[in-house]
């Protein structure tokens, strides 16, 4: 596609349920990032994938959060047993190793 | 690990006033990138600076990269309401297992009062 695609754009879930967020990066981009952004706040780094290297998971806030990137392309961020504090916009970005980051439109997650 | 600090966190200006945000890295950067996020939107790339002391302009925006390649600034002349948003700087990690990973500053939220 022309840009980074994220789905769904909005997700409302009940506390305690699991959710999966999807990111389709730009074809050929070796780097993929997940960020979380609460209203009026900055970008909270979650995880970084670069090619076939082991991902940098240093930003994942708890073991309820996990992410994978299959075939060096599509990525899924999974949040288990969602909590209200998980409510935020989840942004995905992709880039070439030293290039600019292209962000998706984000998934707005609301945990009720 | 690498840290990128950005100040101020918030800036309120009257339309027509100038605005500057500053970015400082704990390590020397190979390049510095700037992004703008409009309210309700996602960050969008503005520019990349690579050379020590480099200065680039985009209309009313002036970007500078420090001589030591550890700091940068974004200056907007005569702000307009269209400048409203959050401005982020970002620099890549030079080595280690996260080689090339972009680290973002906390952002500066700019409000422009008409």
Q: What is the fold's blueprint, element by element?
A:
The complex is a heterodimer of chains A (112) and B (114).
Chain A: E1 5-7, E2 10-13, E3 19-24, E4 31-37, E5 44-50, E6 65-69, E7 75-79, E8 88-95, E9 102-103, E10 107-111
Parallel strand pairs in A: 2-10
Antiparallel strand pairs in A: 1-3, 3-7, 4-5, 4-8, 6-7, 8-9, 8-10
Chain B: E1 4-7, E2 10-14, E3 19-25, E4 32-37, E5 44-49, E6 55-58, E7 61-65, E8 71-76, E9 85-92, E10 102-104, E11 108-113
Parallel strand pairs in B: 2-11
Antiparallel strand pairs in B: 1-3, 3-8, 4-5, 4-9, 6-7, 7-8, 9-10, 9-11
Largest sheet of chain A: 6 strands, mixed
Beta-strand portion of chain A reads over 45%
Residue windows where pLDDT falls under 50 for at least 5 positions of chain A: none
Strand segment count of chain A: 10
Poorly predicted runs of 5 or more residues of chain B:
none
Task: Please outline what is shown here.
The complex is a heterodimer of chains A (112) and B (114). Chain A is 0% helix and 46% strand. Chain A is built from no helices and 10 strands.
Explain how this protein is built.
The complex is a heterodimer of chains A (112) and B (114). Chain A is mainly β and 112 residues long. Helices cover 0% and strands 46% of the residues of chain A. In chain A, strands 2, 4, 5, 8, 9 and 10 form a six-stranded mixed sheet that branches. Chain A is globular and about 40 Å long. By secondary structure, chain B is mainly beta. Chain B has strands at residues 4-7, 10-14, 19-25, 32-37, 44-49, 55-58, 61-65, 71-76, 85-92, 102-104, 108-113. In chain B, strands 2, 4, 5, 9, 10 and 11 form a six-stranded mixed sheet that branches. Chain B starts with a strand and ends with a strand. In chain B, 39% of the residues are buried. Chain A binds chain B through residues 31, 33, 35, 40, 42-43, 45, 48, 50, 53-54, 56, 58, 91, 93, 95, 97-98, 100-106, and chain B through 1, 30-31, 33, 35, 42-45, 48, 86, 88, 90, 92, 97-107, 109.
């Amino acid at each position: 596609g022309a840009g980074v695609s994220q789905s769904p754009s909005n997700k409302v879930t009940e506390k305690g349920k699991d959710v999966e967020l999807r990111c389709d990066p730009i074809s050929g981009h070796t780097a993929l990032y997940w960020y979380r952004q609460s209203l009026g706040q900055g970008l909270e780094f979650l995880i970084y994938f670069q090619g076939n290297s082991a991902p940098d998971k240093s930003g994942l806030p708890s073991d309820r959060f996990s992410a994978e990137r299959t075939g060096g392309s599509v990525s899924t961020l999974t949040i288990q047993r969602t909590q209200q504090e998980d409510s935020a916009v989840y942004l995905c970005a992709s880039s070439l190793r030293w290039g600019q980051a292209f962000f998706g439109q984000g998934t707005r997650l609301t945990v009720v | 690990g690498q840290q990128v600090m950005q100040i101020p966190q918030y800036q309120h200006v009257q339309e027509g006033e100038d605005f500057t945000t500053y970015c400082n890295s704990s390590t020397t950067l190979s390049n510095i990138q700037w992004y703008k996020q409009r309210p309700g939107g996602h960050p969008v790339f503005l520019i990349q600076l690579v050379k020590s002391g480099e200065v680039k302009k985009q209309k009313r925006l002036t970007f500078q990269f420090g001589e030591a390649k550890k700091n940068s600034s974004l200056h907007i002349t005569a702000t307009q309401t269209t400048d409203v948003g959050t401005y982020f700087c970002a620099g890549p990690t030079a080595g280690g297992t996260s080689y090339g990973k972009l680290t973002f500053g906390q952002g500066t939220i700019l409000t422009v009062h008409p």
